[in-house]
Amino acid sequence: MIFDTHLHTEFSFDSAEKLEAVLASAKQKNLGVITTEHKDLNYLEAVGFPIDFNVDDYFKAYAPYRSENYLLGIELGLDRGYTAENRRIALGYDFDLVIGSLHTMAGQNLSSRRFFQGMEAGNFYRQYLTYAKEMVEENPYIQSLAHLDYPSRYAPFPELFVEDYPEEFQGLFEALLAADVTLEVNLKRPLEGEVGRSFRSIFTGYQKAGGRFVTLASDAHIAEDIGRNFEDALKLMEEIGLKVCYYKKRERIISER
């Protein structure tokens, strides 16, 4: 079964979706799902309101629904100074999948358009890719690195291409492979135009560097978005030569259609 490995419900600050609706949508689409609620410990510095949830309550509410088709995960916000506490959370609970995300860089909110004012694209992307590499190295307990294109959604810059930053991408890919962390295909945006060309560049570069596996992620916040853009992603990954996987009890499982 193909799994949607990154989605949110009412335990996340930016979703009001019920688990029952998620499971019904997943069943209708013949997909497995992993809920991955937001937990960013530096929320006060980043955006000024809680990106947090009570993990004990999460397990109490959702663990009874756990099955072969529904698994429990978390999306941890990676940033310097929070590694020890993130590790404690990740290893202290029975998660199937721990996603690492870069919503911030050194405490700066990467979804804030004001943050990018006056910046030059090349300088920012070089810093960002280097920071992503360092975060993977500091947090090797995660299973996947989410939405590498996250700042591209908000910054007034061109999309990311490996050809523009070969050294920085190579460093990141080597860090992912050394830690056995899977690169996520985040499908919040359709694989069209420059976005599609960027994803082809990034995941081709990842494969050439030795990458073998990817996770598919709708990053859905409402049930109807589960599995969005998956068919295009599956086709692209097949063309590139990457295998789609998911995680159960933090062990990689190759997906079969």
Automatic annotation (TrEMBL):
Catalytic activity: L-histidinol phosphate + H2O = L-histidinol + phosphate
Keywords of this entry: Amino-acid biosynthesis, Histidine biosynthesis, Hydrolase
Recorded metabolic or biological pathway in which this protein acts: Amino-acid biosynthesis; L-histidine biosynthesis; L-histidine from 5-phospho-alpha-D-ribose 1-diphosphate: step 8/9
Domain of life: Bacteria
Coiled-coil regions listed in the entry: none
Sequence ranges assigned to domain PHP in this UniProt record: 4-186
Molecular-function GO terms, alphabetical: histidinol-phosphatase activity
Record's GO cellular component terms: cytoplasm
GO annotation (BP), single: L-histidine biosynthetic process
EC number: 3.1.3.15
Protein family (similarity comment): Belongs to the PHP hydrolase family. HisK subfamily.
Protein name: Histidinol-phosphatase
Organism: Proteiniclasticum sediminis
